[in-house]
């Protein structure tokens, strides 16, 4: 790119140094471009709620004095729009936070079973009319190398989506199983599904399949990008399969903390 230092190829140290500096400049340029894109995306996303809010307030200004119905409606709608903006701002903050996670988190371990029981109970409490089948095949005591709140955040995002896009069939499968190496989690719904052309993009920030519909549902298109980033930081994977009209399956894999294996490794290193 244009910020690079020009240098003629040679075999000396100055040339090597210049090549390295140019690599650093490229990385900085890439970072700056990412930041720029992010600011552009954010501005774009905020434009709609701000315009909607302006619409409600203009109504209020013009007819609010004379028409009590307009008065009440405009205020209710304005508050709703403000709530939406608040959740958008909160999720954008979450996203920038997961871009830079403190290294101390990476060393954390979380016991699988209690977390799943809690997440399952919380969901049942929030959505009592939903059938949640919890298929628990977790080896007692097994742990994953991830900060507890981060795993909880990912599970809540996936369950929340399964709920939001469930359609008429109010049923979710949550399955968790462990072996010596991996925790596998499956979150399955029987809802609206995702078309093939959208599947690749659902993990992109601000991506929503149906902007109008998910806007009503309050989605910002950030949940899955946060989930993916969090899982990948901890060396895990997250994938999705879906059939339009039949439902969607999200699958997570995370490395298990294998205490026996780790002990053996430690002994060998002695
Ligand atoms: P949102 O806050 O809009 O739900 P996400 O990043 O969590 O944002 O999801 C991105 C988009 O992917 C959603 O807007 C929705 O269109 C689609 N999506 C996510 N989960 C599901 C699901 N379980 N079933 C159908 N569509 C889904």
What does this structure look like?
The protein is of the alpha+beta class and 270 residues long. It contains nine helices and seven strands. The chain has helices at residues 13-63, 68-99, 103-106, 112-126, 148-164, 196-199, 211-217, 223-233, 259-269, and strands at 110-111, 131-137, 143-144, 171-178, 182-189, 237-243, 247-257. Strands 1, 2, 3, 4, 5, 6 and 7 form a seven-stranded mixed sheet that branches. The longest helix has 51 residues, at 13-63. The mean pLDDT is 91. It binds adenosine-5'-diphosphate.
Helix % is 55-70%
Name the ligand types.
adenosine-5'-diphosphate
Number of helices, counting only DSSP H or I runs of 4 residues or more: 9
Quick check: average pLDDT? 91
Structural class label: alpha+beta
Total beta strand runs: 7
Distance between termini? 49 Å
Q: For the CA atoms, what is the radius of gyration?
A: 24 Å
Tell the overall outline: flat
Largest sheet: 7 strands, mixed
Determine the strand fraction and express it as a percent band.
15-25%
SSE arrangement, N to C: HHHEHEEHEEHHHEEH
Flag low-confidence runs.
Answer: none
């Amino acid at each position: 790119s244009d910020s690079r230092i020009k240098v003629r190829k040679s075999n000396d140290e100055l040339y090597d140094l210049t090549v390295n500096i140019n690599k650093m400049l490229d990385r900085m340029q890439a970072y700056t471009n990412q930041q720029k894109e992010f600011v552009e995306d954010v501005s774009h996303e905020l434009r709609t709620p701000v315009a909607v809010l302006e619409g409600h307030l203009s109504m209020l200004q013009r007819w609010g004095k004379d028409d009590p119905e307009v008065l009440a409606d405009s205020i209710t709608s304005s508050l709703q729009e403000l709530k939406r903006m608040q959740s958008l701002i909160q999720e954008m903050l979450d996203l920038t936070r997961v871009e830079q996670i403190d290294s101390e988190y990476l060393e954390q371990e979380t016991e699988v079973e209690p977390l799943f029981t809690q997440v399952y109970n919380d969901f049942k409490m929030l959505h009592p009319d939903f059938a949640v089948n919890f298929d628990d095949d977790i080896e007692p005591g097994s742990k994953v190398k991830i900060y507890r709140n981060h795993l909880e955040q990912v599970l809540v995002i996936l369950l929340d989506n399964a709920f939001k896009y469930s359609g008429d069939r109010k049923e979710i499968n949550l399955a968790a199983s462990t072996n010596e190496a991996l925790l596998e989690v499956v979150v399955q719904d029987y809802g609206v599904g995702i078309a093939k052309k959208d599947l690749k993009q659902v993990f992109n920030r601000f991506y929503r399949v149906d902007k109008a519909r998910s806007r009503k549902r309050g989605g910002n298109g950030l949940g899955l990008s946060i989930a993916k980033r969090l899982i990948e930081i901890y060396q895990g994977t997250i994938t999705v399969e879906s059939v339009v009209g039949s439902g969607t399956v999200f699958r997570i894999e995370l490395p298990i903390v294998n205490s026996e294996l780790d002990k053996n490794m430690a002994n060998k290193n002695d």
